[in-house]
Amino acid sequence: MDVSKIMAVFFSPAGGTQNVVLALAEGLPLPVEKLDVTPFSKHQEARTFASDELVIFAVPVYAGRIVPLAAERFARMKGRQTPAVCVAVYGNRAYEDALLELTDLAQQNGFVPFAAAAALAEHSIMRSVAHGRPDKQDAQKLASFAQQLWQKLEQAPAGSSLAVPAVPGNRPYKAFKAVGFVPSASSACTRCGRCAARCPSGAISPACPDKTDKTRCIFCMGCVSVCPVQARHINKALLWAAEKAFALKFGERKEPEFFL
Ligand SMILES: Cc1cc2nc3c(=O)[nH]c(=O)nc-3n(C[C@H](O)[C@H](O)[C@H](O)COP(=O)(O)O)c2cc1C
After folding, report:
1. Domains of the chain (ranges plus CATH)?
2. I need a labelling partner for 157 at 20 to 30 A (CA). Which of 63, 65, 86, 223 fits?
3. Mutate to test the pocket of ligand 1, among 11, 22, 123 (most ligand atoms within 8 A of CB)
4. Are strands 65-66 and 53-62 parallel, antiparallel or unpaired?
């Protein structure tokens, strides 16, 4: 099967999912075009892909599911029996139903998810967990998986349908109940607006970047990750206690899993 173009469509508020996509791209023989649907300004982005294109969908896991905002944005991407690679990125706790949900979503929208992966990235809230991941070891595994999935594509006769691997997870998916911390801005805020530009949910207005609409915040830490003066933060005392307990329970290194 010939592939004319590769596009990565990803949602990555704190940048970990994007790093996984970049590592995967290293193992592919064509340049990977990037469509970052994270910012609120991209919430109506829509595309249709042909059967000779390859699409990589990558999304973070929140509470064992895919982020609902990302699911909405991915649902605007339509395939025509377009081969797809589905990647769920998690912070070393568990990915539960997220990868299954992502592959189901891809299929519902006309894609053929012939390859899938559950990969690790630094936990965007509890940053000492999976700190620095994806690391060199992850990058090697991701690049080698990319080579294998490319082989699967190349070996498939033109016009044939690619086999879709089974991935872990249950239907119906677990209920989505993400809890987290709403970041606020300290007096160090320079009102540069980078946080507003990154915020996926429109919880930070460009006119008042030192305020957060708590009803819209999805706790993604995108604003914290892009703030150049560390003005955006979450309550350190609360985080310290939560992170200590979390690291004790989920600190042991997990490895990426691949499905072909
Ligand atoms: C609200 C929220 C919920 C999360 N839930 C999970 C989870 O259920 N399991 C897990 O292992 N990691 C969880 N994480 C960690 C993220 O999946 C992980 O840090 C991911 O790399 C974030 O992607 P990003 O850096 O592209 O934003 C959660 C993070 C947030 C912000």
Report:
1. 5-172 (3.40.50.360), 184-234 (3.30.70.20)
2. 86
3. 123
4. antiparallel
